[in-house]
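Summary of Year 1 activities. Much of the first year was spent building the evaluation harness for sequence design. The harness presents a backbone, in tokenized form, and records the residue chosen at every position. We chose the following record to illustrate the format because it has been used consistently in internal testing since the harness was completed.
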């Protein structure tokens, strides 16, 4: 199933996205449903054909893997091959959904894009073994790890540089895990104003999804609806010559095979 958050004519909630429209499930939020141990199902109501999508869920935690693609490591002159997964947090208050704007906080801010496959946790998970790690995955979505590089690289201000309001677009849907047999065999891409900037495969991950979850849950208990992102491949704006920063008026689209595409315009916030 492809689960979405939708609104239409005063009605809102979780729906199942189909070719005919959105089928309501009667659930108000996916995070809440997962917390109750429930997988939303259609109520039998007719499909809604005119709707607006929001973020498919509101995660309690967003934990992000850094430097997890070989080709991204190679493009970064200061990166070192990691011995184990590296994580940082994005702030839930930064989450926006499909077609919502990424708002630049200042005209001088050096804002970058990062396509990432994101894992949605389906049950409480602590000290997962590698072999059981994927059993804790409810589904997959996309996260654009938008980053203010001038803030991030100044005194290693990762949380502030990546936690700016609107800097965590998520969506367009959550594809349930039964629809994706192998999360390590998906094409990822990014376009800016139609120009292809990133084009790679999750097969390039240094640490696969199961390894990331095994490592993370040694230290952090994951709860239903938490989101874990898995790193970005080469092609980010910061390491191009000259760097290519996002600007007001740009339209960025990230995508993953079997998940879909997430589009967001960029606008000035000053």
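For this record, the design step produced the sequence shown next.
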């Amino acid at each position: 199933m492809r689960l979405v958050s939708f609104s239409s004519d005063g009605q809102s909630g979780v729906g199942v996205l189909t070719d005919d429209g959105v089928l309501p499930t009667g659930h108000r939020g996916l995070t809440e449903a997962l917390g109750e141990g429930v997988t939303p199902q259609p109520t039998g109501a007719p499909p809604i054909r005119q709707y607006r999508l929001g973020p498919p869920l509101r995660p309690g935690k967003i934990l992000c893997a850094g430097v997890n693609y070989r080709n991204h490591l190679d493009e970064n002159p200061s990166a070192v091959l990691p011995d184990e997964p590296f994580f940082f947090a994005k702030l839930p208050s930064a989450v926006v959904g499909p077609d919502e704007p990424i708002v630049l906080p200042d005209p001088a801010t050096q804002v970058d894009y990062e396509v990432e496959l994101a894992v949605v946790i389906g049950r409480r998970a602590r000290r997962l073994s590698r072999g059981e790690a994927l059993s804790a995955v409810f589904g997959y979505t996309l996260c654009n790890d938008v980053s203010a590089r001038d803030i991030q690289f100044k005194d290693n201000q990762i949380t502030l540089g990546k936690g700016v309001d609107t800097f965590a677009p998520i969506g367009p849907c959550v594809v349930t895990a039964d629809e994706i047999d192998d999360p390590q065999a998906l094409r990822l891409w990014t376009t800016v104003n139609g120009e292809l900037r990133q084009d790679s495969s999750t097969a390039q991950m240094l640490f696969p999804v199961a390894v990331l979850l095994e490592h993370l849950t040694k230290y952090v208990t994951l709860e239903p609806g938490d989101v874990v992102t898995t790193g970005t491949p080469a092609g980010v704006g910061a390491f191009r010559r000259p760097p290519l920063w996002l600007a007001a008026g740009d339209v960025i689209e990230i995508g993953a095979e079997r998940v879909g595409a997430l589009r967001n315009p960029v606008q000035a916030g000053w």
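The chain has a mean pLDDT of 96. Quantitative recovery figures across the full test set are reported in Table 2.
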